Backbone:
């Protein structure tokens, strides 16, 4: 086991860290595209960023285990950061423009496909609303009629009590 790395080994690990940082930049664009497709809300952006940082931390841990036996070195972190920045400001800028165009095209296509369905379901919902309003009116009328018809009959339990009380005590009620 070698305790002191030579300059060639450090350079090799640094170059791998540059490449790994570049790959983490590509992963960032994947997360960014998913975020653009699903939602732009701040909470969702926060959740996606936390997920991205967690995945990057785990992948960096695995990278350090494989490349440098788990030893944390400053040049590895700098190499990853530099590789990420190289990607972000070169290919990432191009990828950002392409994904924005693709997502906007995708949204327009989905909107165009679902526009007829939206109109149809809107009409159905409006019809259902009118039907439910008519149903409410009918139910209210029948409810009033039911209460009135129940009060007419003297043989019903709650009317029978008032009928007996009125006939025994001589009160002339409407029972």
Residues:
């Amino acid at each position: 086991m070698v305790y002191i790395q030579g300059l060639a080994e450090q350079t090799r690990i640094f170059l791998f860290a540059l490449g790994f940082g570049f790959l983490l930049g590509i992963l960032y664009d994947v997360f960014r595209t998913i975020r653009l497709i699903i939602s732009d809300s701040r909470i969702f952006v926060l959740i996606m960023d936390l997920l991205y940082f967690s995945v990057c931390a785990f992948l960096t841990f695995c990278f350090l285990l494989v490349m440098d036996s788990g030893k944390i070195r400053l040049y590895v972190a700098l190499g990853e950061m530099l590789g990420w920045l190289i990607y972000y400001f070169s290919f990432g800028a191009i990828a950002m423009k392409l994904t924005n165009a693709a997502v906007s095209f995708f949204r327009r296509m989905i909107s165009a496909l679902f526009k007829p369905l939206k109109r149809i379901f809107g009409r159905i919902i409006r019809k259902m609303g009118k039907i439910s309003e008519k149903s409410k009116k009918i139910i209210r009328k029948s409810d009033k009629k039911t209460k009135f018809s129940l009060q007419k009959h003297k043989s019903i339990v709650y009317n029978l009590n008032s009928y007996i009380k009125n006939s025994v005590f001589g009160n002339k009620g409407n029972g």
In short: The helical segments are 7-38, 42-68, 74-89, 91-152, 157-169. The chain has five helices and no strands. The chain has a mean pLDDT of 83.
